[in-house]
Write a structure and sequence with these properties.
- A 3-stranded antiparallel beta sheet has the order 2-1-3, sandwiched between helices.
- It has a domain of about 80 residues: 3-Layer(aba) Sandwich (GIY-YIG endonuclease), CATH 3.40.1440.
- The protein has about 120 residues and is an alpha+beta fold.
Length: about 120
């Protein structure tokens, strides 16, 4: 893991290394970003649903759509993000992913509809 400020005080050290999150418009430090996990559901081109986790959702969605994502989605492109929720840790995201995968398709679609209504 990259530690912000690991060469603090050394000659030639860029200013943005001394200030976590400098130059980043989200206001989150490198450590905060690394700890943010998402549980997501994709709708594949054949209408099926795929559930996964990621710490960089934009990058993961691009990977699914360019064919370098999960094997399941490679032959079902393009995919569309239909649901996401945040988790406190990778462990929490994995537990939630497993719970969603155990749900029936009907229950997942209800969850997606409810989230769309509330946003």
């Amino acid at each position: 893991m990259f530690v912000v400020g690991w060469y603090r005080g050394r000659e030639g050290c860029p200013d943005d290394v001394l200030r976590p999150g400098a130059g980043d418009r989200s206001g989150l430090s490198v450590e905060s970003k690394a700890n943010r996990w998402y549980v997501y559901i994709l709708r594949c081109s054949d209408g099926t649903l795929y559930t996964g986790i990621a710490n960089n959702l934009d990058k993961r969605l691009r990977a699914h759509n360019d064919g370098s994502g999960a094997r399941y989605t490679r032959s079902r492109r393009p995919v569309e993000l239909v649901y996401r929720e945040t988790a406190e840790s990778r462990s929490a995201a994995t537990v939630r992913e497993a719970a969603i995968k155990r749900m029936s398709r009907k229950k997942k679609l209800e969850m997606i509809r409810d989230a769309a209504r509330s946003s």
